[in-house]
Design goal:
By secondary structure, the protein is mainly beta. It is 9% helix and 34% strand.
């Protein structure tokens, strides 16, 4: 079978599209038709297709260890990654096995978490009214078994559970220093019904 291409000269002259045929949100709204914001539509599509949506503006970076016979070296945070909009404070905390530290969130500061020892289950819940991922929950596993850094923007509830039989240590940066007279700390119970996260380990 021979396929003969049709040259463009054989096509008719293209008719200009009438102005009234252009889809205008204002025209559609006046006729009772309302289009969703494209970000909301994309989020809904991804949620249905992938069943897991990363919370908007959260950044999870895996740390690469460079190992040899002397030990290892790893870069944790670099200024050219622009993970922190501003440096406010560096803090250090240890939690014992089985402890759940959740939930809290901030109105003014971002957090950047790193767990150099132990292992944890980190849970995030998006509280932000104008976020396309409002109401989404994300879970990350961090620590010795999965060296990584997690950027948690303001307005996202966060907490963690220590896994295994050894304490977990977190070293974290915040974009503001802690204000003892007016702490930027908003608390939510660890078993909050709206967040509805099940902290128990599933044996399967």
């Amino acid at each position: 079978m021979n396929i003969i291409p049709v040259s463009s000269i054989e096509y008719g002259v293209k008719t200009p599209r009438p102005k009234y045929s252009v889809l205008s949100p204002k025209k559609l709204n006046s006729n009772g038709i309302f289009l969703r914001d494209w970000k909301e539509g994309l989020h809904e599509y991804l949620k249905r297709k992938l069943m897991a949506v990363s919370i908007e503006n959260v950044i999870f970076k895996k740390i690469i260890k460079h190992c040899d016979d002397r030990g290892f070296f790893a870069e944790v945070l670099r200024d050219d990654e622009h993970l922190l909009s501003h440096f406010g404070q560096l803090s250090w905390s240890t939690s014992y096995p089985g402890v759940i530290k959740a939930f809290h969130y901030h109105k003014e500061q971002d957090d950047l978490w790193f767990f150099p020892s132990g292992n944890v289950q980190v849970v995030l819940y998006d509280l932000r009214e104008h976020s396309v991922t409002k109401g989404e929950t994300n879970v990350y596993y961090m620590g010795e078994n999965n060296p990584s850094v997690l950027l948690i923007p303001k307005g996202i509830a966060h907490g963690y559970r220590v896994l295994g039989k050894k304490p977990a240590t977190v070293v974290y940066c915040t974009t503001k220093s802690y204000n003892h007279s007016q702490p930027d700390e908003q608390r939510i119970p660890w078993d909050d019904k709206i967040i509805g996260f099940d902290w128990t380990t599933k044996h399967r």
